[in-house]
Amino acid sequence: MKTLANHSDRGAIERRLDMLRPDLVRRWGKMSAHQMVCHLADSFRGVMGEKELAVKPGTFGRGVMKWLALYSGVPWPHGVKTMPEMDQLIGGTPPVEFEADRVALGLLLDRFTRESRDFAWRRHPIFLVMSDADWMRWGYLHIDHHFRQFGA
After folding, report:
1. Against a cut of 0.85, is the pTM above it?
2. How far does Cα 112 stand from its chain's mean position?
3. What are φ and ψ of residue 48, in 5° steps?
4. Count of domains in the chain?
5. Which is nearest to 52 in space by CA: 109, 101, 143, 123?
6. What gap in Å lies between CA 28 and CA 35, rounded to an integer?
7. What are the distances in angstroms from CA 30 to CA 26, 109, 144?
8. Do the beta carbons of residue 113 and residue 140 sit within 8 Å?
9. 124 bridge partner residues
10. List of residues 6+ apart from 135 with CB closer than 8 A
11. Which residues form the domain of 28?
12. In whole angstroms, what separates CA 133 from the centre of its chain?
């Protein structure tokens, strides 16, 4: 089971991040590759407390959903609407300069995965409280999902 806690899995993600280009064509969804980079960065900022992150109301069966999303091995569905504060066309960080935004995502990934954290985990908008292991699994899956969206 891949996770950002595993040095090899994290290294593979970092290499894929290094290969991102702004002209990559999406396989599904509406984001551009540049918007995806900013979306991932905003997601890390949200769970690390640097960006406001709302809790999705009325989500029934959060525990079952968390297990399915993180540990069942079922691929994440395409086309799930993101939270407004993570959507670059609504309240997310707008893309500025691709290389600077890509580097910023790399720095956030490094901070997110450091064992000595300088932040406290915030609640996930759907799954609420998560363990370090849950966050490392979520981080891997979220990045992988969007990198695959662009064939990266």
Report:
1. yes
2. 11
3. -95, 5
4. 1
5. 123
6. 13
7. 8, 24, 17
8. no
9. 128
10. 47, 112, 121
11. 7-149
12. 15
Q: What is the dihedral of CA 26, 81, 74, 10, to 10 degrees?
A: 60
Cβ 51 vs Cβ 85: under 8 Å: yes
pLDDT tens column, 27-78:
999 999 999 999 999 999 999 999 988 887 776 667 888 999 999 999 999 9
The tokens for 138 are 């979520």
| Assigned token pair, 66 | 């968390």
| Helix, strand or coil, per DSSP, at residue 121 | coil
CATH code for the domain in which residue 25 is found: 1.20.120
Residue 124 phi, psi (nearest 5): -75, 145
Q: Which residues contact 147 (CB under 8 A, 6 or more apart)?
A: 13, 16, 17, 20
80-84, Cβ contacts within 8 angstroms, sequence gap of 24 or more = 82/39, 83/53, 83/54, 83/56, 83/125, 84/54
- The neighbour count for residue 4, using CB atoms within 10 Å, is 21
Q: Spell out a b/e string for 57-95, using b for 16 or more CB atoms within 10 Å of the CB, else e.
A: eeeeeeeeebeebbeeeeeeeeeeebbebbbbeeebbeb
Task: Say if 1 falls within a structural domain.
Answer: no
Question: Is residue 2 in some structural domain?
Answer: no
Cα separation, 62 vs 127, whole angstroms:
5
> If pLDDT is split at 50, 70 and 90, which confidence band does 81 have?
confident
